[in-house]
Write a structure and sequence with these properties.
alpha+beta, two-stranded antiparallel sheet, 3 helices, about 15% strand, globular
Length: about 90
């Protein structure tokens, strides 16, 4: 799938270079159009700063962002914020 290839080759390395902690990326064995990836932030302040560093960066707005927009399926993209449970080792 072209999206997963681009995510692995361009999006994740770029976001990691800006300081984002990309913890995992998965594909759905039953649906090639489904990809789940997770990023971890220390707190809301850290998240806000990293989102600004990535999504306001010239390379994102001029190069990566337009490609991402052409590859994702409108109406099927879901962004969810999750918190670790008390027993999670990520706490």
């Amino acid at each position: 799938m072209e999206w997963v290839r681009y995510l692995q080759e361009a999006v994740i390395p770029f976001q990691a270079a800006q300081g984002m902690n990309v913890t995992a990326s998965f594909v759905d064995d039953q649906d090639e159009d489904t990809n789940v990836w997770m990023r971890r932030f220390e707190d809301d302040s850290n998240s806000d700063a990293l989102y600004e560093a990535v999504y306001q960066h010239d390379r994102w707005t001029n190069e990566i962002g337009p490609v991402v927009a052409s590859l994702v399926i409108p109406g099927r993209t879901v962004v969810t914020r999750v918190s670790p449970t008390p027993a999670s080792p990520l706490r």
